Amino acid sequence: MSAHTSSRHRILRASLTVALATGMSAALMGCSDAESEAESSAAKTSVEQGASADERLADLAQKAADGGSLGVIVRVDRGKGTPVEIARQAAWTKDDHRIAATDQFRVGSNTKTVTATLVLQQVAEGRISLADSVEKWLPGLVKGGENITVRMLLNHTSGLGDFLLTPEFLPSLTGQEQRTWRPEDLLAITPEQDPPAEPGRKYSYSNANYAALGLILEKATGSSMAELIEQKITMPLGMKDSFLATNADWPTGKQHVTGYEPDAKRLKDILSPTVELPEGVGFKGPERPEGNIDTTAIDPSWARAAGAMVSTAQDWQRFLTALMSGELLPKAQMKQMRTTVAAPEEGGGYGLGLMKVNTSCGTVWGHTGGLPGYSSEIYTDAGGHRSVAVLTSTNFGIKEKTAATANKALVEAATCRMLGKPLPAERSGE
To answer: How many H-runs (helices) and E-runs (strands) does the chain carry?
Structure first.
């Protein structure tokens, strides 16, 4: 727009000079006034359309909250002007906490993008190679590690299954069991993919990959994951509300989103296509209205390099835009990060800790995250100039049909708003 406008003004100035020389100044000045009025009117229309789009976005956020998302934060930064910040929630949740766009939030697997960035920084410095075998760094810890490379861990083509819904780990996921899991313990219970896949052959998302990457980073640098994140990411970028959780505690003096999950009956129905839960197995926490459980006190520290970070919408958008604009990695490593394998279930492709998602309004880059009580989708445009965050105060809850539909409509609309495209037309039932 600015380049186009500057070009137009140069043409108008040149035309005006010729006109003055031929005695046509009065007529052309009249044209110039008309042009100015037209441009002013167009700018006003654009502002009005933007305001209307933001109002509809807020309406979609409230519909999502009322439809099962319970609490929603939406933050859209279009790279100019004041970012749009929206916080909406179901009425009964206000008794627990009045949600704000600046609240801290467990961003789950968005952490993987930070971990991948740290790995690629070490690759740039020559300490780690993407072709290194897992066995080289973690001898005896990963079955078949001699055939799995660091690159395969990063893009989820290792052939490793996921420990998340195994009988051994499920009690910790739901908060029924208080146990401190080391990454080594999680790798020990990690099953093979079902059906099995040879390393490098197939994309299959697994938290075990990033449990291993965290250990490799710590071995290569001599620093803990928490120290690396602070030294290399959060401190340089001024992310004052972001850290790697080492227990269930939240910082004093900071507001955080209250997370919820369906009770045992609803959870069993949701997970039945994936895993058959024993009767009565569900999340531990205070019972809340409409068959929900407050899961805020469940310890997320087991996720470590795979998903244990706490942040805010603004902080995480700051990280992601810095990454995508080339501030955190050299060009060679940025190119490697953005080299994707096919991942239809993610909506496009998966690079090295980075998702490429094809939306109705264009391609975006970023990641998603999910922990008990917390779900997030955070994206930028290709150059890291614009960003969007949609944070939702339930994870399993938005897998129910009505909630899933409303949440998808909200994310799609917020992404289109970020890209400067018209919001998708309302579907019946919205």
So the answer is: 15, 14
